[in-house]
């Protein structure tokens, strides 16, 4: 506490020395109690607040209450411009709150922010070097108690409590104010970190959304090109090869080597055509429109496990139609991702797919009895550029208001579960 002037400590005038010292002791104890109560109230009010505005508003209100002040505000220091401006005020005009801003080192608040030390001014009208004395005199302000908001010695802003009465605040007040300022500083820093985290999470979500939308667009385009060009050409080629085989028979060509190559070419073309059709269906699952989600899942799962020696069991209700096309597509993509993992990684013999309405939720679960994996290793895998399938599924679920969880442990199989709340949804005819 250094920059402080003309402070008075109230004395019990006219009493015996003995009584006066007893009075002062009592008074000191009372003040100490009050200060502790004030500090612990501020700390309780601020604890767990992650929102900067809430921290500042509650911090200022609690402080004013304890200081019996009517007006004041909190200014934050912009890290780049090094300007201080009000973020919250009480009992000050809009004009004052908007126009009162200053550089670091300027005016009372600027000096407090620069030095990191509090200032108490009994009557600001006789104070030199004040920023905007016109605004101060318009508000009729006299006493100023201004303390820095510090976190780990770094000044983040200042809190000012003012009064129209000269000499309204005492030296004890400013000690208390400084303790509150220290707590507020830490809470402000925490809230700023939370805000930064929230903003980066939000940016990440937007990016994930864009990637998913772009991915769907791209898939549609590739499916269209494959369907309109590659698939048509292959169908034509297969027909031509078939025609050549028939012509060779009709013209009595019995060059076995020639006929063999022709037949193999025909077979390969038919095979490639089937494969391209499967890729198209994967990219743009039109069976969703034609069959609906439940049958599309059934058909897809059968097609993917066929010839791989995996048994698939279904426990799916004929769920009433609540879902929008993009929601159906997202759930279908989840099945594709999870089934892809089953055949790529699990060595499972059995897969259960269930899709049921449970209370107010739709629950889709894909469980296998394969080798499972350690969930803790996922972060590590992502650092190596793998493991984005599950992340993608989770993001897709978030986008449709669902949650996605993965359960797995080595030797115990894997379950991917999506839960979509039905609240707010109406049946679609
Ligand atoms: N059903 C499963 N059985 C065993 N291991 C699994 C299963 N599902 C996922 N895993 C493990 O989790 C990892 C991450 O899966 P994820 O789908 O996120 O990525 P990926 O399959 O490796 O790559 P991508 O899906 O992008 O092609 C897999 O590499 C695998 O080790
Ligand atoms: Mg995968």
Topology:
Layout: H1 17-46, H2 52-67, E1 71-77, E2 83-90, H3 94-99, E3 101-103, H4 107-115, E4 119-121, H5 133-139, E5 143-151, E6 154-163, H6 171-250, H7 256-283, H8 287-291, H9 293-305, E7 311-316, H10 325-346, E8 350-358, E9 361-368, H11 377-383, H12 388-399, E10 403-408, E11 414-421
Parallel strand pairs: 7-8
Antiparallel strand pairs: 1-2, 1-6, 2-3, 4-5, 5-6, 8-9, 9-11, 10-11
This protein binds adenosine-5'-triphosphate and magnesium ion.
Beta content: 15-25%
Helix content: 40-55%
Q: Kindly name the structural category.
A: alpha+beta
**Number of domains in the coordinates?**
2
Calculate the terminal CA-CA distance, rounded to whole Å.
Answer: 73 Å
* Biggest sheet strand line-up: 3-2-1-6-5-4
Task: Describe it.
This protein has 429 residues and is an alpha+beta fold. The chain folds into two domains: 17-196, Beta-Lactamase, CATH 3.30.450; 290-429, Heat Shock Protein 90. The chain contains twelve helices and eleven strands. β7 (311-316), α10 and β8 (350-358) form a beta-alpha-beta unit. The longest helix has 80 residues, at 171-250. The two termini are 73 Å apart. Residues 337, 340-341, 389 line the site of magnesium ion (MG).
Key features of this structure:
binds magnesium ion; 429 residues; binds adenosine-5'-triphosphate; 12 helices; alpha+beta; 11 strands; five-stranded mixed beta sheet; six-stranded antiparallel beta sheet; 2 domains; Beta-Lactamase; Heat Shock Protein 90
